[in-house]
Amino acid sequence: MLNGDFVIDAVAHAYNFTPENFREGKRSQKLAEMTYHGLHLGFQPRGDARWALTEDGFYDATDPVRLAHAFFEESQTDVCIYHSIPLYGLFKDGLSPLSVGKEMRELYPGRVLIYGGVSPWEDDVLATVDRLIQEDGISGLKVYPGDVIDGKMADWRLDDPEIAFPIIERARDQGIRNIAIHKAQPLGPVPMEPFEVRDIEGAAMAFPDVSFEVVHGGWAFLEETASQIARFENVSVNLECTTAYLIKAPRKFAQIVGELLLADAEDRLMWATGAMLYHPRPYLEAFRDFQMPADMVEGYGYPELTDELKAKILAGNQARLLGLDLDELKSELGTEERELAEPWSGGDREVSLAAAGGTV
Question: Residue 106 domain-assigned?
Answer without folding.
Answer: yes
